[in-house]
Every structure is written in structure tokens, then in C-alpha cells.
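Milestone 3.1: sequence recovery, worked example.
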């Protein structure tokens, strides 16, 4: 595995009963990049993410993180590895009965042995980093707008100073202005903190605004993984329909105009 790869998936097969989701899937993620993952509904984007982070056991294949084979790690090595990433799940998945600050403190309680006061202080820093004002810290998720909830979930994903951030449809449900601001925030965080970002998205604007490369899942595997301008020339029919359809062309024009 080359040193600039932080994640490498080889020959992944996942299945539920007889339903095969991935078969012979390969994926490479380079250190420090923002990688977008696209594919039709049900093509297995979330299942891929859950396999990489260990929530799902693949039927076959190998997943290397920093050159180390996931399946060969001891429990304590795996726990240490899992502290290195933050995950923003598709629906935010905040604890509804806990304040934003307590939500951000939750992974700290699990993994860090530091005082409550220090945890609260660190949580407030992450909340600010995610672009929320200090008044948000004491609020419940239900008291926040959709965009603010995404930021709260992002603050929690940043709780343990990860070097990889996994985002499952981070801008879904946001209006275009809020989505654009969230994109900018992710780009700034990846640059200032040196984060590697792996992001599932259907949002063509997001792909154009912040992704260095885009991996396309179709036919149970990654059929292409390239910068967008290369990808749009790819002959595969799904890619042509996705990027060459009216929405794809509009996002392309807008992306070109904003660069
Ligand atoms: N726990 C599970 N048990 C059985 N089938 C599952 C399970 N999780 C996912 N699947 C199936 O695996 C396939 C891929 O699901 P996945 O959620 O990864 O799709 P996706 O590409 O993320 O779709 P979307 O864009 O709609 O979110 C789907 O057919 C789904 O029904």
C-alpha cells in the first residue's frame, strides 16, 4: 500500500442473505483528500461506509487503514483506530434528550479520562469549530434548525480530534444556502485540520465545490474514482446520465463559474 493512501479496500464483498451488495469492490482514499462517493439509491454507499468503520462485517475482502489490515487488529488496536475517525451519520443521530454540549461530550466520556470541566471546555471548542454560537451548547437538538443540527453532529464527529471524517449525506435536507455554507465549512476544516474526508452525497453542488475526487459505485463495485472533470468524460451510462443530465450540467456550469 502506498504511503499516501489512508484507506484501501480490496475485493470487498458484502451481502445480506442472498442479496449481494458489493462484489469485488476496490477503493482507495488518499491522505488529506476530500473524496465524494456517489451511486444510485441502494447501490451500497452507506453499506460501504459501515464496512470501513467496522459496523458491518464483510463476507470477503480486505480493508487496510494506514496500511494495517483491519481484520488482523487486536481489540485494543481496533479501539485505538476507531478513535481516529469521526462519523456524521445520514440523519445526524444526536441523542435527543442530551444538550448539544452533552452530545459532543459523549464520545469523550467513552474514550478520554479527563475531568468533566475539561470535557465541557473541549466540547465548547468543537461547537465553535463547527460554526455554532455559544448559545447552542445548552440547547436540545429539537430546539435547533436542520442546519444547526448538522453542525452539532459535526461537532460531535470532531470530538476526539479525528484525522478522518466520514460524512453520510451531510447536506441532505438543507436549503441551498445552508448546504453551501456547510460545504465551505467542511472544506475549511479539511484544510486547516489536515483532515481526510470521505463523503457520501447526492448533492452535485457539493461534489463540484469541495471534492478532490469522486468515486462512483455501480454494478456492485467502484467503477471510477477520479477528479470530477475527468469523471464527466467517463463513458459509463450511469455516469453520463448523472453528470450529463440537466441537473448535472447546471451544477457543472455553476461550479465552473465559481472557480
Ligand atoms: N441491515 C441490512 N439488512 C438487509 N439489507 C440491507 C441492510 N442495510 C442495507 N441493506 C441493503 O443494502 C443495499 C444498499 O444499501 P445502502 O443503504 O448502502 O444504499 P445507499 O447506496 O446508501 O442508498 P441511498 O442513496 O438510498 O441512501 C440496499 O438494497 C439495502 O436495502
Amino acid at each position: 500500500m502506498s504511503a499516501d493512501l489512508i484507506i484501501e479496500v480490496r475485493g470487498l464483498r458484502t451481502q445480506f442473505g442472498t442479496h449481494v451488495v458489493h462484489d469485488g469492490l476496490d477503493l482507495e482514499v488518499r491522505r488529506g483528500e476530500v473524496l465524494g462517493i456517489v451511486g444510485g439509491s441502494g447501490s451500497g454507499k452507506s453499506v460501504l461506509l459501515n464496512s470501513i468503520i467496522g459496523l458491518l462485517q464483510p463476507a470477503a475482502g480486505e480493508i487496510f487503514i494506514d496500511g494495517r489490515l483491519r481484520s488482523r487488529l487486536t481489540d485494543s488496536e481496533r479501539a485505538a483506530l476507531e478513535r481516529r475517525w469521526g462519523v456524521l451519520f445520514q440523519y445526524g443521530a444526536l441523542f435527543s434528550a442530551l444538550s448539544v454540549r452533552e452530545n459532543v461530550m459523549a464520545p469523550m466520556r467513552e474514550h478520554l479520562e479527563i475531568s468533566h470541566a475539561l470535557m465541557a471546555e473541549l466540547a465548547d471548542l468543537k461547537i465553535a469549530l463547527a460554526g455554532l454560537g455559544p448559545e447552542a451548547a445548552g440547547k436540545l437538538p429539537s430546539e435547533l434548525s436542520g442546519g444547526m443540527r448538522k453542525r452539532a453532529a459535526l461537532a460531535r464527529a470532531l470530538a476526539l480530534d479525528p484525522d478522518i471524517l466520514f460524512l453520510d449525506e451531510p447536506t441532505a435536507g438543507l436549503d441551498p444556502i445552508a448546504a453551501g455554507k456547510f460545504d465551505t465549512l467542511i472544506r475549511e476544516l479539511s484544510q486547516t485540520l489536515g483532515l481526510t474526508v470521505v463523503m457520501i452525497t447526492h448533492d452535485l453542488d457539493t461534489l463540484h465545490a469541495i471534492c478532490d475526487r469522486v468515486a462512483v459505485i455501480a454494478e456492485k463495485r467502484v467503477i471510477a474514482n477520479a477528479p470530477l472533470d475527468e469523471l464527466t468524460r467517463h463513458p459509463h451510462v450511469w455516469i453520463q446520465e448523472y453528470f450529463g443530465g440537466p441537473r448535472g450540467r447546471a451544477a457543472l456550469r455553476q461550479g465552473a463559474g465559481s472557480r
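Strands lie at 5-16, 19-30, 34-39, 60-65, 68-69, 85-88, 164-168, 196-200, 213-218, 221-226. The chain has a mean pLDDT of 90.
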